Amino acid sequence: MGNVKIGLEVHISLNKGIRTKMFCGCKLPAKPEPNTNCCPVCLAHPGAKPVFNRQVLKHALKLAIALNCGIAKQAIFSRKTYFYPDLPANYQITQYEFPLGTGGYVDLGNKKVSLKRVHMEEDPAALIHPGGVGNAAFTLIDYNRAGTPLIEVVTEPDIESAEDAREFLKKLLSIVEYLGIYDNSTGTMKADANISIRESGYTRVEIKNISGFKEIESALFHETERQMQAAGNNEMIIQETRGWDALLQKTYQMRKKEDEDDYGYIAEPNLTVIDITEEMIDEANKEVPELAQKKAKRLSDNYSISPEDANALAMDMELAELFEKAAKEIDPVFAARWLRKELVAVMKQSKRKIKAAKFDEKQLILLLKMLEKGGLTDVTARELLERLSKKSFDVEEYVKKHELEAVSDKGELRRLCSEAIEDNPKVADDFKAGKEEALNFLVGKVMKKTKGKAKAGETKEIIADLLKQGTEK
Ligand SMILES: [Zn+2]
Please, which residues have CB less than 5 A from ligand 1, an ion? Predict the structure, then answer.
């Protein structure tokens, strides 16, 4: 058993493929102006009754299947009672006794994280604290979010470190993106986490409401450190609920832990029980695509690319699709390397997704083809790739027009190298005296002269060769 035990409750907003809120007709996505997207149902006016949006169940079923869960025979909702301004009815409609999915797991490659449950629930309203929670003179409430659909995925305390948690979330994110039920560019993953360490006899400390990937990992890391330190100083670690201060990067005490029972769950009387039939499960099953893990294995088997490249490609559905198209026309190993390193770097720099960039795939593959044949240098190809990520253009024509072809004439390249040596006699002497880095300086000179159109490797070879000849003379 590990030294650290972490369990996560991850809330994922179903912000893709759903047109209305979970129990009313309010349109999604909500307009940005606060409190313009609500109705008597999601504001819990007396007498207003919820009607369940079946699309939420379809999405949830797909996820429960993709997470290898057992599926409940019926979809049943309960009321979770608590009094807080973000909840106009004073209860949240959720699933309690009978979650949609039970069991299941997420495979991290080297280990599996078991799941307790997967269930559907509505999101409360958003509380806005101008100037930050600690400083705000008042709190505003935006009911646009009230009643939007969420899925909660609850793990067993199988996660053993903050890094493990990040891996788990990465895998989960890839799954919900593959399923087309979540868009990370407009949504956030939120998590509650419980953490305990062996030194305290695994006394559970819960951290509430951490928002976003990076913060979840940081919160887990810092809370683990805090507990380890406390244990080291012989301090008691008490069962409690803590908050996460992203600004100070530390957790703080909120309250002593309440039990689930304090929420006073009762079955929701205004919603009918829905039978989940075999047909419904079959239909959802058909809509579960080949997921990242399986895809990675197939890519590495079919195209003989390294498992590492295959995994990196498969984590992003669009990237994997692009790779398969490219692999039909160029060497797959070459395509895999370029796409997962250079394309991903370009996208990261511009903070965009491949899909959002609307890459002209034909031109991108053409660019890779030219590069593969040696018609372009890596430097030029990278520049063209960046340009292509912004807008489409005819790569071949552009290369011709701007004379960007790699210097392929060996005689010409040799002449340029000689010139660089003659122009920099001192550097050449440095090299002969054993200063290896002098060689890179000369290569740089040739690159500058050719505007990056000389191939670095070839240039280096020629210069080294010329200098050695010089020494032998
Ligand atoms: Zn509404």
Answer: 24, 26, 39, 41-42
